[in-house]
Amino acid sequence: MGGVRTGVASAAESACAGRLPCRVEMAIFLEQLVNGLTVGAVYSLVALGYTMVYGVMRLINFAHGDFFMLGSYLGYTMLVTVLAQSNLPLWAMLCVATLVSVVAIACLGVFVERMAYRPLRKSSRLTAVVSAIGVSIFLQNAAMLIWGARYQAYPPWSVPEVSWTLGGVNVSLMQLLIMGISLVLMVSLYMFVQRTTVGAAIRATAIDHDTARLMGIDVDQIIRIIFVIGPGLGAIAGVLLGLYYRQIHFTVGWSYGLKAFTAAILGGIGNIPGAMVGGMLLGILEMLGAGYISAAWKDVFVFLILILLLIFRPTGILGERVAEKV
Amino acid sequence: MSLLELKDVRIAYGGVEAVHGISLAVERGRIATILGANGAGKTTTLRAISGLIRPRSGSIRLADADISQTPAHEIVNRGIAHVPEGRRVFSTLTVEENLRLGAYRHRGHPEKVSSNMGRVYKLFPRLEERRQQLAGTLSGGEQQMLAIGRGLMPDPDILLLDEPSLGLAPKLVQEIFRVVRKINEQGVTVLLVEQNARLALRVSNYAYVLETGRIVLSGPADGLRRDPRVKKAYLGEK
Lengths: 326, 238
Ligand SMILES: Nc1ncnc2c1ncn2[C@@H]1O[C@H](COP(=O)(O)OP(=O)(O)O)[C@@H](O)[C@H]1O
Ligand SMILES: [Mg+2]
Prior knowledge:
Chain A is mostly helical. Chain A has helices at 2-16, 26-57, 64-85, 90-117, 125-147, 173-195, 197-207, 209-214, 219-245, 252-266, 272-292, 298-312, and strands at residues 152-153, 163-166, 169-172, 247-248. The site of magnesium ion has 3 residues of chain B, from helix 1.
């Protein structure tokens, strides 16, 4: 018995040739779990924007990832220009940078909806999707012209470099911040949508625009609210991810946007709790895949999940039953 | 003076005109009915009154103010509530949430919302028993009660009812008509659209007969009940 086990272990050892991901240790598993929950929280925040817009307008807002990207850049610019000159404490700088980014991106969201989507609200859905792709290309190119085609990086001083080792698992302050802030935002959003009258109006509008209007609900205003919340959360996610990975590029709207979109589909598009769960699940799957199979292939896993979902389960894991389309 | 008055209203979908210049008036405190076969243009007319479609021409006046260009969500605030065809309750919201949304115009006044909700529950005790239930899980009759109750929540001066008896068992149909009369007795003017001409003529004061987008007959309900053309086409009598 003992001999067999040693044989298997040494076979695994030699097959892995000392590569870290192969060592199936609990600590590494937990560490990947924390990494997964961290990026997953960011995916969830971005996925909420896709899902809420889809729920209310049946539009896949392909420009949503670019709101996230611009949010990340704006936070960066605030930090390296105005805030770098100030003598605010770091936490205050980060709050100001995030706040400015959120307000600007929310305004941009409302503006884009007014200019590019509202005129097409009565046209075919495909027309609106083409318009969304157009907005996305426009925003990406604008970002490239403003910030350049090369990677930019959040300055080292802007990232709180604090971390702890808990039972062999390395957890950084940034990770806790990302998970904590996302959790608070998601719970607040859920409460707002489920418990307030305006929240009920959002859900009603998602079900039936005309009947919502008969209630006295201004559907244009509800859509504006959606385009404040979605891009606003996207901007926060952009700043958080910028601080986490440090690097930003004008194409991250597409790469992360597509992942967040996958998360939204995973949870059942239009479903708010679904987007939250979908994001977390995708983050965990991605990180475990990176840890145990190959880091280089992690994006491939995500898109494999997307393709398989679209083919086999387009209603998402939470399915039709609970998919209240908001 | 009429509470609601349509003059020469034409309504089109795309290029195709569905309502060819109709005029009608509803007196305050009364019940008026629009009768007509499927596709006559009854729903289209109600949707124009509540602002969901813009008429191509003509005027729609509520208490002497033109509302033909007013957006739908503001028309409720002016005092018109529309209970749409097919009930259209918000199926994944609870009964109570549906009623709350009916009172969206009162959203800053929770006491007002709860007193109106109390009135609706008095009218339809079944709804109170089911207030935490999702509207989609109610029976057809209960959904119609909810749709009517939701229409009363904003304190309308006039209630537009589009085929409230459609698809209901005879006993429930009677119940719905009894409620319509009761609502009217409480001071709400009613414009009713119905295919059940017999009962509709019995509860209403005045009626219009719509055929392919035109009013072909109108008059006090009692008179129309005896009109040979109405008897033949809508009451199934010789
Ligand atoms: N959304 C629509 N688009 C195009 N035509 C419509 C639409 N709704 C109704 N119509 C047409 O308008 C006419 C009147 O319909 P409607 O008002 O629904 O009649 P009723 O309520 O009396 O049954 C019909 O010929 C119908 O086909
Ligand atoms: Mg109809």
